[in-house]
Structures are given as structure tokens and as C-alpha cells.
Amino acid sequence: xxxxxxxxxxxxxxxxxxxxxxxxxxxxxxxxxxxxxxxxxxxxxxxxxxxxxxxxxxxxxxxxxxxxxxxxxxxxxxxxxxxxxxxxxxxxxxxxxxxxxxxxxxxxxxxxxxxxxxxxxxxxxxxxxxxxxxxxxxxxxxxxxxxxxxxxxxxxxxxxxxxxxxxxxxxxxxxxxxxxxxxxxxxxxxxxxxxxxxxxxxxxxxxxxxxxxxxxxxxxxxxxxxxxxxxxxxxxxxxxxxxxxxxxxxxxxxxxxxxxxxxxxxxxxxxxxxxxxxxxxxxxxxxxxxxxxxxxxxxxxxxxxxxxxxxxxxxxxxxxxxxxxxxxxxxxxxxxxxxxxxxxxxxxxxxxxxxxxxxxxxxxxxxxxxxxxxxxxxxxxxxxxxxxxxxxxxxxxxxxxxxxxxxxxxxxxxxxxxxxxxxxx
Length: 425
What we know:
With 425 residues, the protein is mainly α. The chain has one domain (32-421). Helices cover 79% and strands 0% of the residues. 47% of the residues are buried. It is found in: Cell membrane. Its main location: membrane. Keywords: Cell membrane, Membrane, Transmembrane, Transmembrane helix. This is Chromate transporter. It is a multi-pass membrane protein.
């Protein structure tokens, strides 16, 4: 009986195996729960930032530092500075790429997507409402819309001033900036900006190749180099293939995706520099009028979050909700692919003086491109009379010297534009 009883009992090895399996299941379940909690935390924090981060890319970086680094300590100070440096070097919306990068480091690819969604969605929804208001009430010629165009003049002028002091402060970089502005004004076609950036990068590499490399720390990135290479290959593949497909496939959705993808992929210097690229892509084709285009750009200054959500407004004006969805995904996709593809290699690349020199030249050229955009299309279409000049100067004073919040500047511009329409002839 004892023998028979022993047969029914599991052996010591069996009990240990079952215990090990159960423990592994518990660990896996715990990791899954922990992963979802981390993603939920990333979504909650990034959404909070998306609702409250006014003031443009530089201000966004300050908000990120306060929330992600100082309060939550998701990264150390030097790693955050290194991430910001990488995103300043890459084309695309710098502040959005920093947010995506923090999400990637915190929770992998899903973390990057979640951080982007939380930070971007609030301003997307606000600009969609503005687009439908503009269409539904036919207010494109209203005085306050004209005021928003003048707001855009003041804000871009402020961006040029700040970027010029930082990125074109010496003789060589100032020369690159002025040369880029001159070429952009005198030779206007779809390839101009790309060629300016390439040439400026080569000049910067030649001028600064002997410059001492800045001391760096190592970023820990939970993304394999295989995934990184795939992202970079997809980035380049879409950039090359989309314009080709557009020539053979007649589809409005494909053409729209191509225009916004190329704009997002070729913009150095952040949201303000996307203005001339998108304007050349959309206005001459008749997809949107220049008045509605500049009105939306002014409105984009009044909402929190990334300026690249201006694309959501444009897409909605062109083709409703589906257009907004295509435009939003297309303009942000290059930024996501680039930051995901470059982070695993950044530790090696940033130690090259040639790479740092190339980006010094590119950043100087960005200042010049933005300076050209200040004149055309902004100044030529928004400043039409002496009273417009006066309003632009007042808004610039409020923004640069009084340092008032952007929403006050936008409100003042809208009120000023309305008053201008009632002035006696």
C-alpha cells in the first residue's frame, strides 16, 4: 500500500518542475503588467505635457526637463542633454523627437509611440476644430484671420533672432546663413532647400573638421541595431519611392502623404522651417489658399504641443478627417523612424568631429532658410500696409522684450487684426 501510495505522489523533480513553470508564469505576467503600467504612465505624463506645453520647441524642452528629468528622474541630466543634441541635429520636429526618444528609452518602441500620441493628440484636436470652424463659417477674410497672419510674422522673426544668436553667431556660420537665404529667395523650386542643406553640411564638415569633439556620455537604448537599420532603410525608401509612385499612381491620398512625408523628412530646425516647404507643396497646387494656409499657421501658435500639428489643420482643410489623419501620420513618421534608427548608433556618431561640423553648417543654413521664409511668403502676404507693420512691431516687442506667453500674443494679434478692418480709409 505504501508503494501504491508513492506511485500516486509526484516526484521531487516533478514538483520542482511544476514550481519552476509556475514561477516563470508569474514572472512573465508580472513583467506584462509592469510593461502596461509603464506605458500608461508614459501616456499620462505625455498627455499632460501635450495639454500644457505652450511656447514652441525651446519651451517644450524646458517642460520635458521639469517633468521627465527633475520630477520623475527617468534619465540623468547629461543623457537628456545628449538626447536633445541628437534631436537638434536630425531633421524633423526637435521637441517631438525628444519626447519620442524618452518614450523609446523608457519603454521601447511602444513607449515611443505612446509618448508621441500623448504629446501630439491635444493640439491635433484643437486645430481640427479650428479647421472646421474656418470652413463652416467662411471666415477666411475676417479681420482676426489677418491678425493671425501678422502674428506668424512676429513669431518667425523671434525664431530667427534666437536661432541666429545660437547657430550663426560667428563669421563662417553667418556667411552660410546669408548665402542660404539668398539662394532660397533667388532660386525657388522644390529641390532648393534640399541642395542648400547638403551643400551647407559639406561646407560645415570642411570648416570644422579639426574642431575638438565635445565630451559625451553613453546613452542606454533598449532597441537593437537590426531594428534601427530597418527604420533607417524605411525612412530612405519612402523618401525615394513615394515621389516615384506619385508619378505613376493617380491617388490624392498618396500625393498628400508624399508631400507631407517629404516636408517632415527634409526640415532642419523645427516647426517654423516647415513653413516654406509646405507652402511650396500645397499652395501652388491649389490644395489650399494662401490666406487659409497662413491663418492656420497663426492659429497653430495658440495651441500647446508641437507646431508640426499644423499639418493636421492643413489635411483637414484639404480633405476632412481622412486628410488630417494622412497629413499627421506622414509628417511625423520621418521623425519617428529617424530617432528610432539613430539612437542605437548615436554613441559612436557623436564622437566624430566631421559629423558635428556638418551639423554646424546645416543649422546655420536653417537660419538662412527661415530668414527667406520671413520675407516670402510671410511678409509679402501678411504685411500689406503701414498699419500692418505697426502691429507686427508691437507683437514682436511683446514677444521678445516683454516675454509674454504666446497665447496672449495670438489674442492680441487677432484683436489687432479686427481693429484694423474698422479703421477709417
